[in-house]
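Anyone have tokens for NADH-quinone oxidoreductase subunit B? Sequence:
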Amino acid sequence: MSNSDIQLAEAPPGIEGQGFFATSLDHLVGMARSNSLWPLPFATSCCGIEFMATMAAHYDISRFGSERMSFSARQADVLMVMGTISKKMAPVVKQVYLQMAEPRWVLSVGACACSGGIFDTYSVLQGIDRVIPVDVYVPGCPPRPEQILEGFMQIQELAKNESTRRRHTPEYKALLASYGIE
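Reply: yep, here.
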């Protein structure tokens, strides 16, 4: 192969003005992030039982680099909220979210976490997106382990393709401000 046969790859859309080093660094960081996510399971009901099956040999979430469940918010990247969240528990979920370091992602698992489920009562929060921003929703009552793994793979894609500068954009800061998060 001669030098005339080598072609340079074109820059992905939206990053034409950035240098080769910055885009390559973004891709490298994204790949490293996506394959080493540490989830924090916040399970309150039956969806947590379905999530436990993803750790078993048949589904094996460790194939995706996430065999280390973090039960400390300061050491987690992905908050997996599963099950019914009461309005009394909403500040706790928000506090856990705020204790996580950036970048952080949220996976809402099950009908109750996504929309309140069948519990349209005064005490149940009608979706965790009322207190924290959610990146991926996994519907179902309860969702199958395959669905939870699919949602987790979508979080991996977000982590892989997210620019290292996205979290400092005015749009992202406005999103957090809409939730009362500084």
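Residues 145-161 form the longest helix (17 residues).
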